[in-house]
Amino acid sequence: MTKVTWNELDRAFANAQTKELDIPKRAFESLHDFVDECFSPLHLHRLSEEDIEKYLRIKPELTTQEIIAKLPDWLKDMYVAFLPGEANKLPPRRLWDHVIDIKPGHEPPYEKNRPLSPKELLVVRKWLDDNLGKGFIRESRSRSAAPLLLASKPSGGVRICQDYRGLNNVTIKNRYPLPLIRETLDALCDAKVYTKLDIIAAFNKLRIAEGHEWKTAFITRFGLYESLVMPFGLCNAPALFQNYINHTLHDLLDRICTAYLDDVLIYSKNKKEHREHVRTVVGRLLDARLQIDINKCEFEVTETKYLGIIVTPTGIQMDLEKVKAI
């Protein structure tokens, strides 16, 4: 594509009589090349469903038998807690439904849609269809709107989330604390064996409080939508989910497990009691409708990475990969 300067584009002007935009020849040629490159129908048609899923890095869901095969023998009877399909169901109303309190004298802002490439638009369409199908979002007539934000995943692909920075600026903050990492690690000092669990799409397990859905509205090329479940990106989402997981595991925290948002670590002095501890925690998460991601679990290990730190019976050390990144 030929480079075109801002000055050349500045010389473009609207012709009131013809209702056309007059653009200098060189700038027009450059823009024409750009449009051909990005918006060619042939380019759009080449993107198959498989291409979109690769762009999103969507992994096919494991079957029930595959999940059972990944579980240790002493936990196979609790396989239901690891079924990903259960995580796609709309959660029930709870005391922890997410309320978005706005500062007095302020309103949730309306922001314009941001342009995306053809590939990104197809990815957004699939993401919308998936979430509409699950009942996690619905069409909206809200007077506010947040744009979408597409971010690259460390493992490749793209993560789609709503850019709620404008809404967060006018939201009254929830000061519920997150666990201090030092206190968390202190609780592990006598442990010899560990199991690590990860909750699937944790924030989506809580509903937006009834009557507050319009504040979560987000704008896309395909229309205006609002969230029925707590999305990623809201400033109070971490605090509220930490509140919920603490309530769920209240009497077990710092005794047999610790939970930092969606990361749960179970620890014990020996394998016999450890298996009982794991079954207790998994049962609590199942009752709370917090599905566990089998692909991110570690069972009965003597060394694990937790919160960016390697934990062992003899002590802790920094993850060298994290140190190199710094």
Structure, described:
This protein is of the alpha+beta class. It has one domain: HIV Type 1 Reverse Transcriptase, subunit A, domain 1 (HIV Type 1 Reverse Transcriptase, Chain A, domain 1, Roll), CATH 3.10.10. It has 11 helices and 14 strands. The strands form 4 sheets. Strands 3-8-7-4-5 form a 5-stranded mixed β-sheet. A 4-stranded antiparallel β-sheet has the order 9-10-6-11. Strands 12-13-14 form a 3-stranded antiparallel β-sheet. A hairpin with a 5-residue loop joins strand 4 and strand 5. Helix 4 packs across helix 6. The protein is globular, with a radius of gyration of 24 Å. 24% of the residues are buried.
Brief description of this entry?
The protein has 326 residues and is an alpha+beta fold. The protein has eleven helices and 14 strands. It has one domain: HIV Type 1 Reverse Transcriptase, Chain A, domain 1 (Roll).
